[in-house]
Design a protein that fits this description.
Layout (H helix, E strand, L loop, with lengths): L3 E2 L5 E7 L11 E5 L6 H9 L5 E6 L7 H6 L7 E7 L8 H9 L2 E4 L4 H8 L3 H13 L2 E5 L1 H4 L5 E2 L8 H6 L8 E2 L12 E4 L6 H17 L4 E5 L4 E4 L4 E5 L8 E7 L26 E7 L7 E3 L6 E2 L2 E8 L2 E6 L13 H4 L2 E4 L6 E6 L6 E7 L9 E5 L2 E5 L6 E9 L4 E8 L1
Helix pairs in contact: 3-5
């Protein structure tokens, strides 16, 4: 196979298979690969959804490493595999590159540096052609490592280099924490989502939580996140069902579906500010994560329509206290209107005065409601000892010895219901 050099060498093309375009009806979908070697079963899923059409690999470094693997290595018949290596940003407006995007039934983004992809392709004819193919032609799209990281509505751009969890958690506004929302790749089921890769490195978890905190702080949105270990893939069909492929039980291959805890009255981080460690604790319930171990059948799933229902996985609670990431086993999330008890309207709990200088009064006007526990957290997630007295249906909390600032009050009922409220001590 002889590479074809584009005009001015702005791109290099490698073709395997037929040079004659074939038109098929692709089945759509998204394949998100966590990095390292691709999972064969996920790649078969990806190729099958091209329905025998033309596969296009887009990358900014490397050469034709995917061609024979995708064309003949997986036993799925396709018309052609063409790799286009974009040598510089000029390729993003080259007519040949745009034509190949328009003719493809499947597009795969290789790994590399996501900022190079963003810098070359964003707001160019390339991303316009890709999005048009997704929306109008229903092509299947996928990518690994950096090629996965660019596919959400929100994305870590790596414009200033990579970021570790230690860096991000100690200061969410560090210059390395570059979370972007400028329009790029438009995948319907990733419209409120950020993706992250190489998650078998435990250092990734804290920085992803920081990305979610920054998205809320910067854009006022509670976004979701999908993350994959290396050798693990999440394949999303057009019904919004995500299947997880990997090598479990031989290998510990995991995918993670992370969201802020919609069961809480208050969901926002206690402290996401420049120069300060992140705290997103909320009583250890800040984020809900569904972890699935991927196997060769991709039989374990998560429903991206509701972000509440999965098969074969385990729920965890994720939270951050004063820049320290933590996780504990949790319970299934339930965001239906009946799942979260609104004490303000149902049990008429009254909390006053707020702000307060010395004392907080809690009164349950509905005498049928039994308060089981009262907890107060400071901005770094510490559970503070309380001096509490009760007179009739009123509970008095002494705050005289507390510093000025914002606190999180949790009132727990006998049935485990929780009411959260921010308290200001002035």
């Amino acid at each position: 196979m002889i590479p074809f050099l584009g005009f001015g060498q702005s791109y290099t093309s490698y073709l395997t298979g037929s040079a004659t375009d074939i038109v098929t009806s692709p089945s759509g979908g998204v394949c998100l690969m966590g990095g390292a070697t691709e999972d064969d079963n996920a790649m078969k899923w990806f190729l099958q959804r091209a329905n025998g059409g033309d596969i296009l690999v887009l990358r900014a470094t490397g050469s034709n490493g995917y061609n024979s693997y995708l064309y003949s290595g997986l036993g799925v018949t396709v018309n052609s595999v063409e790799t286009i290596v974009c040598n510089n940003a000029l390729a993003s407006s080259d007519p040949y590159v745009i034509q190949k995007i328009q003719q493809a039934e499947a597009i795969w983004f290789a790994g590399g540096d996501q900022w190079t992809y963003i810098n070359y392709w964003r707001n160019s004819p390339v991303d316009s052609a890709i999005n048009q193919a997704i929306q109008q032609k229903n092509i299947v799209i996928g990518g690994t490592s950096a090629g996965m990281a660019i596919q959400g509505k929100y994305y870590f751009s790596a414009q200033n280099g990579t970021a570790t969890s230690a860096t991000a958690l100690s200061n969410p506004f560090n210059s390395l924490v570059t979370v972007d929302s400028s329009a790029f790749i438009n995948n319907n089921f990733l419209a409120n989502t950020i993706t992250d890769t190489h998650f078998d490195n435990p250092d990734r978890k804290g920085r992803l939580v920081t990305f979610l905190a920054r998205i809320h702080t910067d854009y006022g949105v509670y976004a979701n996140a999908i993350a994959c270990d290396e050798y693990t893939a999440v394949c999303i069909d057009t019904n919004g069902i995500a299947r997880v492929f990997g090598g479990h039980p031989t290998y510990d291959d995991n995918a993670y579906f992370i969201q802020s805890n919609c069961e809480l009255t208050i969901q926002s981080p206690e402290n996401c500010s420049s120069g300060n460690p992140l705290t997103w604790n909320l009583g250890g319930l800040a984020l809900k994560t569904y972890q699935i171990k991927g196997d060769i059948t991709g039989s374990k799933t998560f429903d991206l329509n509701t972000w509440q229902t999965g098969t074969g996985g385990i729920w965890y609670n994720w939270y951050v206290s004063n820049g320290s990431f933590n996780e504990q086993p949790g319970t299934a999330i339930n965001c239906s209107p009946l799942a979260t008890v609104n004490f303000n309207s149902i049990t008429e709990i009254v909390i006053y005065p707020n702000p307060t200088r010395d004392k907080l009064t809690i009164r349950a006007n509905d005498l049928s409601f039994n308060i089981n526990k009262i907890i107060l957290f400071n901005q770094v997630g510490q559970n503070l000892p309380l001096n509490i007295t009760q007179i009739g249906n009123e509970i008095h909390v002494d705050l005289n010895n507390f510093q000025k600032g914002i606190y999180l009050l949790i009132i727990e009922g006998k049935q485990g219901e929780k009411y959260l409220n921010k308290i200001i001590r002035n």
